[in-house]
């Protein structure tokens, strides 16, 4: 069909409009192009035509998806099916019983896009919470979660029943509304599980991305008071770390999602660690957040050290080379370093930095290869690598001065309990949504 060929040319918009006007008659040729990995037509162009045609393309797309011979063709068909313009979401709900897992997953994805309008199809989605395919189960949970609190009564009913769906329902309840979405029976069950796991929990290395404070005290109530935290709830260390990681990495439109709660460790080798975004930093405009962070860290470390004798703040990123540290004693910041703002240092290098190279200092001086012949550059490079001092990092400083969270283990002494506590932002908001590892 000449119009389909025109989808690869400069007049693709006109061709698209005419194909859409043809409706069902255009579905077969356009679908063939979509499934042809060698076609000069961009698959996304063909997909948009089919999505605009809508209902007549549904069954052919389902057939193509179920029969897809390659992962790429399956991906194209699935993406197209998920965005198909179909007036009745019940058509997608009916596909949740299709024999092909790919089709069931795509149908759940299409229902997820309905968000609150998915309510009539929640029972159908609940029916695949125990689907034999993990991808289908995951997509069904996301689709139910998209309905928000409209799904809570159904999920609570599933929790009171039997079968594998109970676990998926609990996770989805937590993702919808956190602690507030659980009924009293589930709250008691979760609390019991936390107590059981905490009793035999050994410290384990934490994934670090963000900043944390370290205070040389085992007086947790005093630390909570110093940070203005309230309503501490006993948790496992794993749960506390999971909450911090989720709050830092998760994207959410929920107000104050990053700064509602703080993870406070038990005393680890005599140091209490505090993980959580400072509210003032979370509230700052993106362009100002780094400056606000540096100012807040300096001020908070100084205040904490006046109360506890010393206080540290460390920062590390899992996505780039950022690292930072702030060290304060007796009410005064004696050292501050930020790898991305080396011109904003405070104090001279700390003795704990001895033998280390600051991250902003070039590893290879410009003159390193002067006079070295081309064939000797590789050997000169290896020679310099062998002689370079190790690069300083927050975890290195923490290991030398306090506690390195990335190196926790059975050797770490533990006193007290881990807690999640609420910031002033958290006190004014519902519980934070999101299932956490216990």
Strand order of the largest sheet: 2-12-3-5-1-6-7-8
Number of domains: 2
Q: Helical element count?
A: 20
The secondary structure category is alpha+beta
Strand content: 5-15%
Would you tell me the overall average pLDDT? Answer: 93
Helix content: 40-55%
N/C terminus separation: 58 Å
Low-pLDDT runs of 5+ residues are none
Main β sheet profile: 8 strands, antiparallel
- Rg (CA only): 28 Å
Number of strands: 12
Choose one word for the global shape: globular
Report on the structure:
By secondary structure, the chain is α+β, with helices and mostly antiparallel strands. The chain folds into two domains: 2-190, Leucine-rich Repeat Variant (Alpha Horseshoe), CATH 1.25.10; 203-427, no CATH class. It is built from 20 helices and twelve strands. The strands form three sheets. An eight-stranded antiparallel β-sheet has the order 2-12-3-5-1-6-7-8, sandwiched between helices. A two-stranded antiparallel ribbon has the order 4-11. β6 (310-316) and β7 form a beta hairpin. The protein is globular and about 80 Å long.
